Amino acid sequence: GAVVSQHPSRVICKSGTSVKIECRSLDFQATTMFWYRQFPKKSLMLMATSNEGSKATYEQGVEKDKFLINHASLTLSTLTVTSAHPEDSSFYICSARVPGQGLLAFFGQGTRLTVV
Amino acid sequence: QKEVEQDPGPLSVPEGAIVSLNCTYSNSAFQYFMWYRQYSRKGPELLMYTYSSGNKEDGRFTAQVDKSSKYISLFIRDSQPSDSATYLCAMTVYGGSQGNLIFGKGTKLSVKP
User: What letter does residue A79 receive in the DSSP assignment?
Assistant: First the structure.
């Protein structure tokens, strides 16, 4: 399957600071990437759809000013959690579709964010 | 009623057992069905996908879809301790963007040696 790399895998930050998470497609170009948040024992929750060269599309209830998404190239999307608070602590996962492979989605390794 | 229902478990089986994991759904428009495996603190890994009713086999894994009952299953034969993970079903409508991929909560499986 296609490879999606996410970095960092784990980050601890102080309340009020910002954290940037990177998502890269290593062996294909992804015009669209997706950001999810996962709570313990809960389903993956789609936060936003990241489109290369245009603004991200956010799901209802997701604060776009808090979760900044940038998709500046065909292989890189970033999620920045701004002014992080303890309630932002979660597991964040990105995914991408491979052009020509329909609706198949490949996921990054995930980032465990802990805000202290 | 949620769109996709999946028993979160946990499910514990002895090594070598046949495992059956299931999801039910309410939206008859769903046409693509996928199973992901997620190890602890890792991203989901695509295991199998199908878009038609019936069975699809890949090694020890068999995906089964029954659209008339809105029911999908994943069977694991000769289960191994390395199969211990959370299994997520996911589905979407024909032509929908991946943003419409709807996930179950996941079933946590533990295979004991």
Answer: E
- State pLDDT tens for residues A22-38: 999 998 888 889 999 99
Whole-number average pLDDT of chain B = 90
| CA-based nearest residue to A20, from A75, A72, A69, A73 | A69
**Which tokens is A55 given?**
């603004």
Q: Does the distance separating the beta carbons of A41 and B88 come in below 8 Å? A: no
**Hey, which residues does A12 pair with through a beta bridge?**
A114
Enumerate the residues of chain B whose CB falls inside 8 A of the CB of residue A9.
41
Main-chain phi, psi angles of B111, to 5 degrees = -105, 115
Interface residue of A43, A93, A107 to substitute, partner B, most B CBs within 10 Å: A43
Measured CA to CA, the distance from residue A114 to residue A61 in angstroms comes to: 21
